[in-house]
Amino acid sequence: MLMSRPGGDNAQKDDVPWWMRYAGRGLGTVGSFIAIILGLINCTGIILMNVSCLIAGVWQMLAGFIVIVCEAPCCCFFIDYVQTLSDRIETRPYWNKAALYIGLALPPFFLCFLSMSTWFGSGLIFATGIIYGMMALGKKGSRDDMAAMATAGTPPGAPAHDHTVTLMEDPDVWRPN
User: How far apart (Å, rounded) are the C-alpha atoms in residues 63 and 52?
Assistant: First the structure.
């Protein structure tokens, strides 16, 4: 079942646009490969006796590996537990994935702040977390839904001079003469 993924069968995914789902998975896959390579480059900071950049590089490589295990288990099929871990992560809500990816991306920033490889590599993992966070927020409501939510606190026949009248109830309030 390694190739049965991008859609999955989670009921939460029904209200997420297809392009956002593939953007999260694609950015997670490509970004984690880039983060692993840039983490390796970041580990060369030991030459300059910069131990914090070495730790940041190792963390970034591990974070990239965890993201690629979650997003593209077919890239790590030689490890036995990858598919079960990926299936377990896939059943979690989107905000869990967002919190995991953002939490994995932040420590290298604090350890090696001035390195561009840290900014770009961990930044891609952070961006993947942001996309999953936006997916957790869900789809924006329609105009009718937003108008109904805006008028929920006001009486239906409120006069125009009443301070509780919203712009949606009386468009003459905001229309130019």
Answer: 16
Q: Which residues lie closer than 8 Å to 141 by C-beta, 6 or more apart?
A: 149
Q: Would you give the DSSP letter of residue 47?
A: G
**Separation of alpha carbons 31 and 27, rounded Å:** 5
67 CB-contact burial (10 Å; exposed 0-12 / middle 13-18 / buried 19+): buried
Q: Which two tokens stand for residue 154?
A: 């006001």
Query: What CA–CA distance (Å, rounded) separates 63 from 126?
Result: 10
pLDDT, tens digit, 9 for 90 and up, residues 57-88:
999 999 999 999 999 999 888 888 898 888 99
Record the pTM.
0.74
Cα(19)–Cα(24) distance, rounded to whole angstroms? Answer: 9
Q: pLDDT tens digits, residue range 149-166?
A: 777 654 455 454 555 555
Residue 90 · residue 59 · CB < 8 Å? no
Q: How far apart are the first and last CA of the chain?
A: 64
CA–CA dist 35, 40 (Å, integer): 8
